[in-house]
Specification:
2 domains; mainly alpha; elongated; Arc Repressor Mutant, subunit A; homodimer; disordered C terminus; Tetracycline Repressor, domain 2; DNA-binding
Chain lengths: 193, 193
DNA sequence: CTCCAATCTTGACAGTGTAAGGTTATTATA
DNA sequence: TATAATAACCTTACACTGTCAAGATTGGAG
């Protein structure tokens, strides 16, 4: 009947307006019906693209994670060496979520993307930010000529990641920018000791 | 009519069954009506004790935080000195939430208790776990005879807290126990560098 | 004994996720 | 070009949710 019976690109539209809602009012304000309405579509139309609400949320999470990865990739690309790359990744890790606190709660609040992560092993590391950190870290070790065994590497990687993530978490929770000089983290060859 | 018209201690019962629900099925499964039913009470009875659902959730959060504090207090009490107290606090910080991952998501997922935290200042630090950490840390500095100015103290405190919190977060998210030797965090006098 | 405040019940409402089944537009095929 | 198949979308319906208003019940203070 009407010429807009078919939306054309509903799936992407749902994801984008979903992100907008979360960014404006947080995850709690995200309802399938509201998102559908914002896309000028009936409240059950999303089910043509997503099995249920969780599947839409997961798609949105992937999309937000991609935004996050752009930030981290940019840090790596614009750094003069791997050491500065790691430092800048840490800074951006925090500033990204500090700029959008709702993203932090959304990504890490409920069931999240980091599903079956094996730290210190090379299997199943399917969380892109961690993969990038690990890659950069190994390059850093090589650049500096530092020798460490697998376990030591895993622990140090975890320390770096946990510090960044923890600071981001605290920053988002308290709304206070950590007075933290990230450079201190990577001084000398015993970083993060 | 019935001799159980008045529950007697409904408020506490709601909080306790709420905790049980979250512990068993996560925060998403927490509904006022179900909690009320579990207390053998009509679906609107909770409104005599809590303004709305958020107020019940906040009460539950306070209760869970108390459980958490018991753990941390026990760490401090059973430690031989402040250094070991901090180490054990970190271990328990992680093990507590690892034992009950739903608690982590519940406490830190959405709007959380850590509201207006001033790090490095002495006002408004109304988050009990942080207060305890700070107290223990200052005692540690005194025991070791370490001199640091306010800002340095704040940064170091934040590092310790962020590491513990970050590791707990990652552990809960990935379900993997961090292969992290907490003792390394506090070696020497430049801990966490 | 009376009154009152706290507590609980009942009933209603709008908003939610989602299942079932119908409708339209696009694409493939003959 | 005509038709069949499929994917995208719609309508209807239902159970469940949080919340509110109005009234019933109770225990305790005066």
């Amino acid at each position: 009947m009407s010429d807009t019976y078919h939306h054309g690109n509903l799936r992407q539209a749902l994801i984008e307006t979903g992100i907008r809602v979360i960014n404006e009012s947080g995850e709690d304000a995200l309802s399938l019906r509201k998102v559908a309405a914002a896309c000028n579509v009936s409240h059950a139309a999303p089910y043509a693209h997503f099995k249920d609400k969780d599947e839409l949320i997961e798609a949105i999470k992937r999309s937000v994670t991609e935004q996050f990865m752009e930030e981290l990739n940019d840090a790596v690309d614009s750094a003069v060496d791997s050491e500065n790359a790691i430092i800048d990744m840490g800074k951006r890790y925090i500033s990204f979520f500090l700029r959008k606190p709702d993203y932090y709660k959304f990504l890490f609040g409920r069931q999240n993307i980091i599903a079956h992560l094996k730290i210190g092993e090379e299997t199943d590391e399917d969380y892109p930010p961690f993969i990038l950190l690990k890659k950069t870290y190994l390059k850093y070790l090589k650049e500096k000529g530092i020798k460490k065994n697998r376990k030591e590497q895993g622990i140090e990687l975890l320390k770096i990641w946990a510090s960044a993530h923890g600071l981001a978490a605290i920053a988002c929770m308290s709304g206070v920018v950590p007075p933290f000089d990230w450079n201190e983290m990577l001084e000398g060859d015993d970083l993060l000791r």
